[in-house]
Amino acid sequence: MSEAIKLIGVPGFGRTKLFDYLRRRGVFIKDGRVPYQKYIDLGWFNITESTYSTEWNTHINLTTRVYQKGVDGIRRMLKKDGILQTESSLVTKEKGEEIS
């Protein structure tokens, strides 16, 4: 997910903010870092499961991987919500002019 947010390029928007945003948008389950099955089926994400054992327990670790389709979908969501500006709507801070 860290690489995905770098590809999308929203200033001040890191992994934690991205997970929070995706939870609010209903892409990820409410209290976790796992997407709903709908978004896995759409080809946005892949979940890899691995296990490791300690002296007392066996633990399951889930890793979420984002495909290019997911990066594109997240980018569309961010643009729709006005968080990510399109290149044609970027405005310079000094002059207030549009950059094309």
Describe the overall structure.
The longest helix is centred in the last third of the chain and has 13 residues. A hairpin with a 4-residue loop joins strand 1 and strand 2. The protein is 35% helix and 18% strand. The C terminus is likely disordered. It has a two-stranded antiparallel sheet. It is built from four helices and two strands. The chain has 100 residues and is of the alpha+beta class. The protein has one domain. Helix 1 crosses helix 4.
Described by its quaternary structure, the protein is single chain
What separation lies between the terminal Cα atoms? Answer: 29 Å
Main sheet properties:
2 strands, antiparallel
- Which strand order does the major sheet show? 1-2
The total beta strand count reads 2
Give me the secondary-structure category. alpha+beta
Shape: elongated
Whole-angstrom Rg: 17 Å
Strand and helix map with partners:
Elements: H1 2-8, H2 15-24, H3 37-41, E1 45-53, E2 58-66, H4 68-80
Helix pairs in contact: 1-4
Give a short summary of the structure.
This protein is of the alpha+beta class and 100 residues long.
Describe the structure using short key phrases.
2 strands; disordered C terminus; alpha+beta
